[in-house]
Every structure is written in C-alpha cells, then in structure tokens.
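hey m, so remember when u said the tokens were messed up on ur end? i reran from scratch. heres the input so u can diff it against urs
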Amino acid sequence: MVTQEARVHVLKRQPLKLVATPPSDVACEHAALVRMLAGAQARVSGLVVDYQQQIHALQAQVIRLRARVILRDTMLAWLRETLVQLEPTVTEDLAAHHAAADRVICQTGCVSHGGYWREDDLCRRTGKSCSMEEIKIEIPR
C-alpha cells in the first residue's frame, strides 16, 4: 500500500529522502541470507540444466538402442525364415549324399573285394538286403 507521503513525492516528482542510518544486525543478516539464497538458486539452476541435458542424452540413447533391438530382431526373423526354407533342401541333399555314399561303399566292398560286406545276401554293414543286386554296374572293356 502506498502511503500519503509517497503519493505527494510522486505527484511533486521529488525524490524521497533517505535517512543515512547504519544497517542493523537484522538487516545485515537478511542481506547475507538473500545472497546465500541467490547462490543456492544459481547452483540448483545449473544442476537442473545439467540433469535436463543428461535426460535428453539418455532418451536419445534409449531410442538408438531400441532401433538396434528392432534391427536385430528383424535380422533374426529373416534368418529363421531362411533356415526353415532351407531345411527340407538340406535333408534331401543329405539323404542323396548318404545314398550315394552307400552305393560307393557297396560297390567297393561287394564288387571290387569279392562281396566283403555281403553275408547271405544281407549287408553286414546295414543289416538290410544287399542293394548291389539292384545296381547295374557297367565294366569297361
């Protein structure tokens, strides 16, 4: 609230007269507390700015890491899909190679070595009937 005396000074445009009295202990203590409060506010403001920067950096890092996880999961899904598509081919190829290896072993053991693997028309290696009877071997002349 503005006092009557202040209104008069404002209307007359005369500056207020300040009384030169020495500051009291309360005034000095108040000034010291205000300076300490200003310093604390400055430190807290600096900390808030630092924490905001750290939060922004961590949020950016989280986004980058999420992108890496999405990329990794996508690559794994593609690899699993490719593996599922390749498995029948691999098993077919293995079966074909296994059959070819059996023919080579049978040809070597039964034809070249006089029926080494054969025992009463059974293969000693597999226990099945001899497959050499089904395979026609051409002997070059």
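this time it looks ok to me. Residues 106-141 form one domain. if urs says something different then somethings off w ur setup not the seq
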